[in-house]
Design goal:
The protein contains three helices and eleven strands, in the order H-E-E-E-E-H-E-E-E-H-E-E-E-E. It has a seven-stranded antiparallel β-sheet with strand order 2-1-5-6-9-10-11. A four-stranded antiparallel β-sheet has the order 3-4-8-7, with helices on both faces. It has one domain: Electron Transport, Fmn-binding Protein, Chain A (Pnp Oxidase, Chain A, Roll). The model has no long low-confidence stretch (mean pLDDT 94). The longest helix is centred in the N-terminal third of the chain and has 14 residues. By secondary structure, it is an alpha+beta fold. The radius of gyration is 16 Å and the shape is globular. 21% of the residues lie in helices and 40% in strands. Pfam families: PNPOx_N (PF01243). Keywords: Oxidoreductase. It comes from Streptomyces luteolus. This is Pyridoxamine 5'-phosphate oxidase family protein.
Length: 154
């Protein structure tokens, strides 16, 4: 496998590229952990609302149980060369209580509305506290583009 050629990006470019991907992509990997059962990772559809990642999972899933017990999570976009990793604490709402705006936007993006399902669903919102973005080893230095909830490049 041959590595792609690229020009090393500054923080502002990494931020722009990260936001472009968060707005355009469909899938994200969510990693949770349970105090007794350990780590758990699943791919989920997601919506970026400009401040947070919104996802939905079965209300009785391992993911839902883990988030209730331990809200600290990690998220990753599915690309091993153009890496975007997010960390934050998950907030959650049963489908019947989720704010209308994000739930409508989620349904509009995917053509699927978990609020209408017979089985219960749980919406998750993760405002990132840290975002790391890099393309290959040359960009490992300076990979943090959001720290303590604030973008480093305005």
């Amino acid at each position: 496998m041959q590595a792609e050629e690229f020009t090393r990006r500054d923080t502002a470019e990494r931020k722009r590229d990260t936001l472009d991907r968060l707005n355009a992509e469909r899938d994200i990997w969510l990693s949770t952990s349970h105090p007794e059962h350990g780590p758990h990772q699943v791919p989920l559809w997601f919506l970026w609302d400009g401040r947070a990642v919104w996802m939905c999972t079965g209300a009785n899933s391992a993911t839902a149980r883990n988030v209730r017990a331990e809200p600290r999570v990690r998220l990753a976009l599915p690309d091993t060369f153009d890496v975007v990793l997010l960390q934050g604490e998950a907030e959650h709402w049963p489908a019947r209580d989720v704010p209308k705006g994000p739930a409508d936007a989620f349904a509009g993006k995917f053509g699927w509305d978990p609020r209408t399902e017979r089985e219960p669903f749980l919406y998750l919102r993760v405002p990132p506290r840290t975002v790391r973005a890099w393309r290959g080893e040359p960009e490992l230095s300076g990979r943090v583009v959001l720290r303590d909830g604030a973008w480093l490049a305005q």
